[in-house]
Amino acid sequence: MGSPSKQWRGMTKTTLVLLAALYLPGFVPAQEPVPPAPTAPSASGESGQDTGSSSSKTKTRLIPSFLIIGTVFNENALSFPRVQIRIRRSGEKKFRWETYTDSRGEFAVRVPPGFEYEVVTRVKKYADQTQHVDAKVEVQQRLSIKLEPQVQSKAGAKS
Hints:
Helix 4 (36-44) crosses helix 5 (46-61). The protein is 34% helix and 28% strand. A hairpin with a 6-residue loop joins strand 5 (116-122) and strand 6. It is α+β, with helices and mostly antiparallel strands.
């Protein structure tokens, strides 16, 4: 027994790792079929098809969004950050979506397709702007909104 232990002592760690790598693949195939077994039934089994069809049903139930994107500019044609954007369906009083423009004056809002919408921009010292969007035809619509300073009230006009 003294001679085999001397043989192991003489081997470097690299040699032991290589020997382990040669012998371990014999053990790995016995362990590998276990992980693919759960994935195989879901991909090809009947229960997997039901799951796939239910997820595809879910996808068919989901309505793709219509994207309203735009940029708001001031009277000098410079981008206008922090402008309030409110969106409602045409003919409704209540606004359903609200956002603000970012530092570049841009905004993006997803709404359900198939309706007409009113996009109202509001910021202090500027007149509100309303634009109409028809979400029945395309997938998205880009708006370019130029705000105008608010006209002075009647009290200011009399002076």
